[in-house]
């Protein structure tokens, strides 16, 4: 099993280092946060605040380097990768994919890069919030582009599977559009709800119950991380925000004119049934040979249909799709 | 302890009948749903599908009548109350208060009415979803108007306290404005999120994680009940929807122009801190004599400040406020 070098030890990077170490892999990490480095070292992990040293070791050991820094720190970290581990096998866990892919192509053109994004998290952040089981059964997007090296892809996918997650093969653009819908818009809505609720003062706060606490939970996330994630996905997020504005405006118009909200509420109810149906549906096994000429198309088709790769068997991705 | 007659045995009415029976009170219920009546009877509760008989018995026993029907059924049920228990002590658990107060004044002017609304619920509905512990530590608004009979108010508040909840004394208008913020807008946002997520197809559904499932949970509620509740609060809800449109539009404009979402995200984060602060704050004891000339003002002031009545001691409401 290939060694793993994790740069950035917040919630995701810290959980990844713990989970990777638990698989028996040699794994080390680096973080600029003295606090996180101290906490990780005290917990027995091999951690330094010297990012360059960690990358140098990765180059020597031909380790898989995982960028687990916020989007705003990606360019600087890639500069260090280019200097100290230019040819490494490289992945990341950043929550937007097209901007990272673009930065990698500019900054580290010789790295064997495969993008990644685990769909897991909590409203907490930092090393202490991490948990080796965070990725259990989670979807983890592993990027497939026209020029993706499928040997490198399989290495990253194997790590993801070892960490307990399922692999969703996708183009960067498909990922960014989907997370604008199911993650970034939910974060914006939560922020707006939390603002409007708080403006109701102590009375509104004293009446807040489940619909409010559920709807605002992710607004308690570290604002810097939410800002980096949503602003970094501007291109995909703008049309989704426009869709939300259109739907909210339509609800407003209907409430003001006829007094009816049936269209809004029924569509939402059907949406929840769609999610439930996607989760409950019987799934069929599917195999994609990674050495076939159309392997990339096969993987992406699987991801686009909501499928997941759950194993790698020699040169074949084994998965399921509805 | 006064007997309790519950009209409507869905999630809230069914939980209330269970919890009232557990306090040792004589309690009976009526529902037009044969299914719910059968299930409740089989569970050992005193339940009928004959609403008029249940109300007739309430008049004979001078019971406290609780309307636990959807807003759309309130007018019809009040007509039956006026016919069979015109002078009863009457409360309700409907999620808007000004429209119910208005209907009561028109339909049952001789009833001693005190409005109510428990801030508790789940996305489920119907008798089988009920639970005697649903109201434990929940806020339960008990209405105070200029003409509220404080003896009747204390009777309703005592029942609420016996059921395990805390009493929030409020004017109907204050209640309706606050729940537009912390309940009805969250329901609309959840519906819109669930619609936009589902439009992303199986791919978006396969990437949906905590921020999406939390943000859309209440969109899975019975659409008829959500429609009744939000449409019934039209007057208070419209300005809140306008506030949401303004904030979402501002976020859109900022993302499109400067690319920044800091104002939106920071305000949301501060909103979550406001809720946490309101819940963690040290509270001072407060007593409001129900026989004082300014008792109604004292109760409402307590509710408006986010306070709760936690006991009734002879003729004094005992509570806490921050």
Automatic annotation (TrEMBL), chains A, B:
Entries under SUPFAM superfamilies matching the protein: 6-phosphogluconate dehydrogenase C-terminal domain-like, NAD(P)-binding Rossmann-fold domains
Pfam families: PDH_C, PDH_N
MF terms (GO), sorted A to Z: prephenate dehydrogenase (NAD+) activity
Residue ranges of domain Prephenate/arogenate dehydrogenase in the record: 2-286
EC number(s) given by UniProt: 1.3.1.12
InterPro entries registered for this protein in UniProt: 6-PGluconate_DH-like_C_sf, NAD(P)-bd_dom_sf, PDH_C, PDH_N, Preph/Arog_dehydrog, Prephen_DH
Alphabetical UniProt keywords: Oxidoreductase
UniProt record similarity statement: Belongs to the prephenate/arogenate dehydrogenase family.
Name of the protein this chain belongs to: Prephenate dehydrogenase
Species whose genome carries this gene: Amycolatopsis samaneae
Lineage: Bacteria, Bacillati, Actinomycetota, Actinomycetes, Pseudonocardiales
